[in-house]
Write a structure and sequence with these properties.
heterodimer; A: four-stranded antiparallel β-sheet; 29% strand; globular; B: 478 residues; alpha+beta; 15% strand; rod-shaped
């Protein structure tokens, strides 16, 4: 279970302080698909960075299955990201000189997954997202956008994290492929019993989520 | 493609470093070898003394003792060079008068044949005793026999005092350095001509001298001489306390100039004091400048290579900033990412070093030659040292100052004219430009050290940059 309570984050810029996240509080159960929608600059990416411990909140708390994470030190945050969170990016962000299989194995390596099981686990994950062994041996530049996002999903789920954070996962894909990716995320979240949090500005994507939130001027609220 | 470019640029810089390292070593070895070959000898001769022509006021035993007491003086070999005319000895010189002797005009000869023992330092003297003139001018000449009184027969027997080559005892023994006895070690030619062997006797200045040893120098001229104890010669030749030359050994090559200065100061204007130190220093100046240039260029090239790698790595880190951010977001620790980049920079360095080392070895010889030639080494090298080669037959070992002609060496067909003291420059046969470039273990070790320095410096700033990359900022700019 993910529990976020009164999360706040500001940035100091030359133009003055920017309150990116003013108030964010919510809870999500394991296996749920949660969507956060908002316009550009509304604070949704900052919220995602805070939840992924890529940034430190000014105030508030983040709890996963009873563990408080917001005040972890740098080493603790790195360990958390490696073992308990998976990231999916709009631009896929696969390592270009590694094959699809090696990209997935990389996440297993960082989470200290047993070395001898990494290959089999990575291949299983790629098969689960619909990529065969031949495509698993390809480098990202020889895969389509949809296939690259599938590799990214396989990488995010590989180490069995408790939370998946997906930033505009369909933003670089056509509608049909994007739809398939959302369905894949939903089914994988359910199968792996993982909370998946999607940040999107696409209402149709958000409509498929179990719960929907909107962020506006840094304030998060749940919508029906 | 970029990686190949980095390796090639790095290789060029490392090749320059290697070639400079090799050039520096080659020049350094040459300098050491030249310095070693010049030895620590300093020649002291009476002022105005000029070989067989004599001249000048002899030095005294006291003056020699003064030199011995100077700091950094290891040993002093004093000698008194005298000549035995036919009236002073029953020996016959094995050296024929030669062309010059046959043309000699007795009216111009410098003779001094008093029975009291005063001697002549000319090379020739008319044969007296009513022999039939053998030339058109009514004179016939015999070559005088050179006698060297020395307090260091061991040193004298290795070519230091008698103007010959390298002498070795073929029979008998050398006399004691402090001996006052009427003993002698004679040259092989003189012994052969006069049927002398160990135990034989001959007369000199009216005294009976016993042969205690026979030496062979490989030089007809030097083999015609007699070595005797210094004090014996001083007594017999009525030259008490007189010394016509000394060879001083400094304790270290680096102290030769200092000792030379001290002796000059001590003896004031009484003597000519010379060493090869100043000559060698001026001749080595071009090599020293090459050494300096190669040292600076070496460090410049190493710094350049490090900068090339540093900038390349910074560029690579900058280009892969997003990748680093993603890796950090996925939970990669800094050390893991840094290790990856250090491995990359090490690979560049190793490949660059391989390319550079091979290229460096290939270009080191021409670069070294070019540097030496550009700094004027070729001219001074071939003309400055090539001529100090002592030729068989005695050669012009010169007067008190140990002067030797700049090239070729004056080598009479036979006989020749030996002066009081002379230097031997057999060790300078090689010209300064004949440098041997090679990459030894020390060069390899230095090259490895430089490669490590390059890799470490090249990676440092890159790794520092990596630790500062914040994944949130990288991903926010997506």
């Amino acid at each position: 279970m993910l529990k976020v309570d009164h999360l706040q984050k500001s940035f100091r810029t030359a133009a003055g302080d920017v309150h990116a996240v003013v108030e964010a509080s919510f809870m999500a159960d394991s296996g749920q698909l949660v969507a956060i929608i908002g316009a550009s600059g509304s604070g949704k990416s900052t919220l995602l960075s805070l939840l992924g411990l890529l940034d430190t909140p000014d105030a508030g708390s983040i709890e996963i299955n009873g563990t408080e994470l917001a005040q972890l030190d740098a080493r603790g945050r790195t360990k958390y990201r490696a073992q308990r969170v998976g990231f999916i990016f709009q631009a896929f962000n696969l390592i270009p000189n590694l094959t699809a299989l090696e990209n997935v194995k990389l996440a297993l390596e960082f989470s200290n997954w047993d070395k001898k099981d990494r290959g089999a686990r990575a291949l299983d994950m790629l098969t689960m997202v619909g990529l065969d062994e031949e495509k698993a041996r390809r480098r990202p530049n020889r895969l389509s956008g949809g296939e690259q996002q599938r590799v990214a999903i396989a990488r995010a789920f590989a180490a069995q994290p408790e939370l998946i954070l997906a930033d505009e996962p369909t933003g670089s894909l056509d509608r049909q492929t994007g739809q398939k990716i959302v369905e894949l995320l939903r089914s994988t979240a359910s199968r792996e019993n993982t909370t998946v949090l999607i940040v999107t500005h696409d209402e149709k994507v958000a409509a498929q989520a179990d719960r929907r939130f909107e962020i506006e001027d840094g304030v998060l609220r749940e919508i029906d | 493609m970029r990686s190949v470019g980095v390796v090639i640029i790095l290789g060029v810089a490392i090749a320059l470093s290697i070639s400079m390292l090799i050039a520096r070593d080659a020049v350094s070895n040459k300098i050491d070898s030249v310095r070693a070959s010049t030895g620590t000898s300093i020649t002291v001769s009476p002022k105005g003394f000029f070989g067989f022509q004599g001249g000048g006021t002899p030095l005294t035993n006291k003056e020699i003792e003064g030199i011995v007491s100077l700091p950094h003086v290891r040993a002093v070999q004093a000698s008194l060079s005298e000549r035995l005319s036919s009236s002073q000895t029953n020996l016959t010189s094995p050296t024929p008068p030669g062309f010059l002797g046959q043309q000699f005009d007795g009216g111009n000869s410098n003779t001094s044949n008093s029975s009291s023992g005063s001697s002549t330092r000319s090379g020739l003297t008319p044969i007296t005793g009513g022999s039939t003139p053998s030339n058109t001018r009514g004179f016939s000449f015999a070559t005088e026999i050179r006698v060297i009184g020395t307090n260091s027969p061991g040193t004298a027997l290795v070519g230091g005092a008698n103007g010959g080559g390298t002498e070795t005892l073929t029979s008998g023994k050398a006399f004691n350095a402090t001996s006052t006895g009427n003993v002698a070690v004679v040259g092989a030619s003189l012994a052969s001509t006069n049927k002398l062997k160990v135990g034989s006797t001959f007369t000199a200045w009216g005294k009976t001298i016993t042969v205690v040893g026979v030496y062979n120098s490989g030089s007809t001229f030097a083999n015609s001489e007699i070595l005797m104890p210094l004090s014996t010669v001083q007594t017999l030749a009525s030259a008490t306390n007189e010394v016509t030359g000394a060879t001083v050994q400094a304790d270290n090559i680096s102290n030769v100039t200092l000792v030379t200065t001290e002796i000059t100061k001590d003896l004031d204007s009484a003597a000519d004091v010379t060493s090869t130190a100043s000559t060698v220093a001026s001749e080595l100046a071009p090599l020293n400048s090459v050494q300096t240039i190669s040292t600076y260029t070496l460090f410049g090239a190493v710094i350049g290579a490090a900068l090339i790698l540093l900038l390349s790595m910074l560029m690579i880190v900058r280009e892969r900033r997003r990748e680093i951010g993603v890796l950090k977001a996925l939970g990669a620790p800094n050390r893991s990412i840094i290790a990856q980049f250090i491995a990359e920079s090490t690979t560049f360095t190793v490949l660059g070093s391989l390319v550079g080392f091979l290229a460096g070895i290939a270009i080191s010889s021409p670069i070294t030659s070019a540097l030496v030639n550009a700094s004027g080494g070729s001219t001074s090298a071939s003309q400055g040292f090539g001529g100090f080669v002592h030729q068989n037959g005695g050669g012009f070992t010169g007067g008190g100052s140990g002067f030797a002609p700049p090239s070729g060496g004056f080598a009479p067909p036979s006989g020749g004219f030996a002066g009081g003291q002379g230097f031997h420059f057999g060790g300078f046969r090689n010209t300064l430009t004949q440098l041997h470039t090679s990459a030894g273990w020390s060069t390899l070790a230095y090259a490895f050290l430089f490669a490590v320095v390059i890799a470490v410096v090249g990676s440092t700033f890159a790794t520092a940059t990596i630790t500062r990359i914040r994944p949130a900022e990288v991903l926010r700019s997506e």
